[in-house]
Design goal:
Shape: globular
CATH architecture of one domain: Alpha/alpha barrel
CATH topology of one domain: Glycosyltransferase
Pfam family, one: Glyco_hydro_47
CATH class of one domain: Mainly Alpha
Largest sheet: 4 strands, antiparallel
Protein name: alpha-1,2-Mannosidase
Number of strands: 17
EC number: 3.2.1.-
Order of helices and strands: EHHEEEHHHEEEHHEEEEEHHEEEHHEEH
Strand order of the largest sheet: 12-13-15-14
Enzyme class: hydrolase
Organism: Prasinoderma singulare
Helix content: 40-55%
Strand content: 5-15%
């Protein structure tokens, strides 16, 4: 029970960690009502986030006061990922409690994004005006501030979501949105590096505009998502499974294998299509790590894709690559004195320099998938 001094909570983070965790505990315990009751209490407090002029959720809620607001650095906006990564948990809460307010609120936000500007199936922009529900700039990316929006299109469809919104297309709209995005990534964002033929995913500053050979580690969720789509019959095996395997291999080799610490930087750039690595970067083959992007937060995306591809294909190499990543974490992200783990300041420098940060996804996701 939050006290009067309770701090603001990120609606996105609390949904996927705390609300999702309580709902999972309810199922795993065989239906212990304690967990469902706490999940419902939390959902009631978080509902204040959706009390905006457009229905697009505010990013933060004070769990004690119920006051909702946008981020401090940009109070009038949310981003596509935070607004579009709520449906699975909120719809599950509705299904278990019979209270449809939770599912309706999350679906409304998701479907506003689905109906917004898209270019060949890819959403145009990262930032959303909370008052109007309209997108701002027009950058096209699978990375930061957009990534999990695409995940929830497929995964919500697979869990049967959207059936209560037939006037907006129902379940089929979620599948259609994912299929269009998958095709567009293959056609417009997939790139091969200049000499090593690595398959990587680029960004565009606007539809039809400049394509940048830049890829966030966050984008390494994509091969696992595509493999899941193939496995569940949403996508044809050819060419999608081959592309997923090629991209997963590139994630391992470009982000991890050539790093001096064996750990991935937050972002890579690569040579190709007339673009070159800057002289100040760490360079290995076609790939470069710019100095501002060399930190490692112990992210889960590659580990998740390797786990899914091992399950889908049975190929042992995915488990071997996962083990090598785990060994690198143990060797270079462990705090010698405390025995815990922490952010690495630069993956290109040995011995590693640690920083006082450990995000929740390390235990909630990265270790889970590696295990």
């Amino acid at each position: 029970r939050p006290g009067a001094g309770a701090s603001d909570a990120s609606v996105f983070e609390v949904t996927i960690r705390a609300l999702g965790g309580l709902l999972s505990a309810y199922y795993l315990s065989g239906g212990d009502e304690l967990y469902l009751g706490k999940a419902q209490q939390l959902g009631e407090r978080l509902l204040a986030a959706f009390d905006s002029p457009s229905g697009m959720p505010y990013t933060d809620v004070n769990l004690a006061t119920g006051r909702a607001h946008g981020p401090q650095f940009n109070s009038g906006q949310t981003n596509v990922a935070e607004a579009g990564t709520l449906t699975m948990e909120w719809a599950t809460l509705s299904a278990l409690t019979g209270d449809e307010r939770f599912a309706r609120a999350a679906e409304r936000a998701q479907e506003m994004l689905m109906a917004s500007r898209h270019h060949e199936g890819l959403i145009e922009g990262m930032w959303v005006d909370i008052k109007t529900g309209q997108l701002g700039e027009r950058r096209i990316t699978l990375g930061a501030r957009v990534d999990s929006y695409y995940e929830y299109l497929l995964k919500y469809y697979l869990m049967g979501g959207g059936s209560g919104s037939e006037e907006r297309g129902g379940q089929a709209a979620y599948l259609e949105g994912f299929l269009k995005a998958a095709g567009a990534v293959s056609r417009t964002l997939s790139r091969r590096s200049a000499t090593e033929n690595l398959l990587l995913i680029a960004e565009q500053d606007r539809p039809g505009g400049r394509t940048s050979n830049k890829m966030d580690h966050l984008v390494c969720y994509w091969p696992g998502l595509i493999a899941l789509g193939v496995h569940r019959g949403a996508l044809p095996e050819e060419p999608y499974l081959r592309e997923a395997e090629d991209l997963a291999e590139s994630c391992f080799r470009a982000f991890y294998e050539r790093s001096p610490t064996g750990l991935a930087p937050e972002i890579i750039h690569w040579a190709g299509d007339g673009q070159k690595c800057p002289s100040s970067a760490f360079v290995s083959g076609d790939v470069c790590y710019n100095s501002n992007d060399q930190h490692n937060l112990l992210r889960p995306e590659t580990a998740e894709s390797l786990f899914v591809l091992h399950q889908v294909t049975g190929k042992e190499r995915y488990r071997e690559w996962g083990w090598r990543i785990f060994e690198a974490f143990e060797a270079n992200s462990t705090l010698p004195a405390a025995g815990g783990f922490a952010k690495v300041g630069s993956v290109a420098t040995l011995p590693p320099r640690h920083e006082d940060q450990l995000d929740t996804f390390w235990m909630a996701e990265t270790l889970k998938y590696l295990y």
